Input
Amino acid sequence: MKKNFIERLLPIFALLTWVFLFGIMLILFIEGTPIFKSVPLFRFIFGRHWYPVHEPPEFGILPLICGSLMVTAGALIIAIPFGLGCAIYLSEIANRAVREIIKPFIEMLAGVPSVVYGFFGMVLLAPFIQRIFHLSIGLTAFTASVILGVMALPTVASIAEDAISSVPKALREASFALGANQWETITRVVVPAAKSGIFASVILGIGRAIGETMTVLMVAGCCAVITPNFFKPVRPMTATIAAEMGEAPMGSMHYHALFAIGLVLFLITIGLSLIAEHFKER
Amino acid sequence: MLKFKKLGLLILIASFVTVYSSEARKRPNTLTITGSTTVLPIAQRAAEEFMESRPKVNISVRGGGSGVGIAALIDGTCDISDASRPIKTKEITTCRSKGINPVGTVIAKDGIAIIVHPSNSVKELSLDQLKAIYAGEISKWSEVGGRTKPIVAISRDVASGTFEVFKKLVLKGDKTKADALMLASNKAVATAVVGAPDAIGYVGIGYLSSDVKSLVIEGVTPTNETVVSGEYKIARPLFMYTDGKPKGLAKEFIDFILSKEGQKIVENVGFVPIK
Output
């Protein structure tokens, strides 16, 4: 009887995730789309100037999109090799005792609040990067990438590790039986078998990096410019919303524009998840 | 019988509600303050200390912006309206038509210091030079008498009151150049300037420290004295508006802010005391 009741309750919880997702989407649409009445969609997405409180205001978010993509790409360059290396080492090479010690540390790394990372980046990493690269200011896309990379690392490492260790033991034994050594087994058998899980870990890592707000607000420098140079400050979308939402008068163009940025960010992450699903099925 | 009991209960509740709500509107011990988010920290801290010494008094402080505060004063939903700018002529007209006579009291000043790295040889700038730096027309320190290095301009984010003052008094309606850094707090700007020899930034005068050098602007050093006297130009008064001259609890509260103790709060939260 009791089990039955809980069993009946569970689908409601599952359904709630849908309710929340659609609720968020709905609000983003309702609050975000009014900006397109005054700024055409094309000019909003591809406009190169973001001057929300100037008279007349300009709402072009291309520099913000570029900023987000840049720091995310930079973060992945750090998080993927380190995260995968970590995952492979832990599940295939390390002995049990080492794994038991290292795994909790990775999880603790995931638990550090983002403002702490941001503070660390602002006070220690930015001056350091400024000195070794002879920059005029240390708050750059590169600085943000390094910190975001470290933040996304536990996500990539722990999910990839789960995927790799759930590869059936029989596959490894078969590989060894055919005369492959450990390295060949890892690169030719285990990793390809865990491909979909590893891909999911990367996508979730991207999600972690692109949605991160506090850290980039503190270390990216926040210049709304489009630059290919990783050693220049950039301004990601999340930092813009966080910095400006507090003072944007409710219902103003600025307010709707910030919601529209949220909508763009949301669509990008939804797109990423869909891509991930697509690749998983193949 | 039960019905009557229910009815009686309802009447009792209703009468309580009426008494309570009519009381709430003109309870002598409550004060509602709305308005400028710049003034908010002053009002908040002052209210806390004020209530500590007067346990019966209840002060609620809200932000919303100067315009919101003055609208609330017009609607009669607040007793004191905080404003980081003088009331506009249009707002005065609306006030008059509703029979409200807005009277402003200056409670503090908000001064903005221009800061550079202590190693920077530039000591002084004119307002025009400062504007040109932030608008992107001057991009090298050598153009204002310094070393041949590019200037890294650091601004506050557009949501801050500090940016608002800077935009009005320095940029005078011009745009900040796109590659100026926009940082989220006075502290972040100061930290960035401490670490960057070629940077220029601006912070509230309360955030000056010995780690940075403040520039002389139009021949005037930014200090509490020059801001109060009006000699230093990048500053603005902060107001509290009331309907008519402040009286009763509102007067007590404003007097408290103008007292030695209150002005200390003003200084502690980063603004310039006027007394």
Q: What stands out?
A: Residues 62-93 of chain A form the longest helix (32 residues).
